[in-house]
Amino acid sequence: MRLVPLTPENLGKAVGITLRPEQEAFVAPVVHSIAEAYVNPTAWPRVVVDGDDVLAFIMGNFDPDHELEAFRAGIWRLSVAASAQGRGVGRFAVNALEEEARDRGVERISVLWERGEHGPEGFYLKLGFVPTGEQLFGEVVAFKDLSMRGKAFP
Q: What is d(CA 19, CA 37) in angstroms, rounded to the nearest whole number?
């Protein structure tokens, strides 16, 4: 698997990503995310590919001056094709965004999610995101500390 920028060559396959039907209520369609990236210069849209196959779309945001901490650095969208789920693709995409954040000097990233039976909460909790108890737009706000990676705890 590789993480690559969104390009004219992979755009069609990225837009064609389909989730499991029960997940569709929890994430905006990829085409909506791409439109949002087009008008937000701080957006960071990428796709996970395996050969010619587009397995997932992830869009981060890096806006260190944003008034809300939850929008300074983090995950805006993650869509993993139904056929690629359960293979570590989502984890790979999030890890890649974390590496990008570290390269930019970011020590904490955020993600927001809507709670629900088929929502992404369990996935993000397993990856180390910690809810703050705050909500924005009716969604859970969670952060992950990146500064401790590779450091020994006392």
A: 20
Task: List the structure tokens of 111.
Answer: 């993600």
- 3-state secondary structure (DSSP) of residue 61: strand
pTM metric for this prediction: 0.91
The distance from CA 142 to its chain's CA centroid, rounded to whole angstroms, is: 12
* Residue 141, in any domain of the structure: no
**Tens of pLDDT, residues 77-119:** 999 999 999 999 999 999 999 999 999 999 999 999 999 999 9
In this structure, what are the phi and psi dihedrals at residue 103, rounded to the nearest 5 degrees? -60, -25
Specify the number of domains making up the chain.
1
107: CB partners within 8 A, 6+ apart: 145, 146, 147
What are 78's two structure tokens? 């993650």
CATH number of the domain enclosing 83: 3.40.630.30
The phi and psi torsions of 73 (rounded to 5 degrees) equal -160, 125
Query: Which domain range does residue 51 map to?
Result: 2-107
Rg (CA), the chain: 15
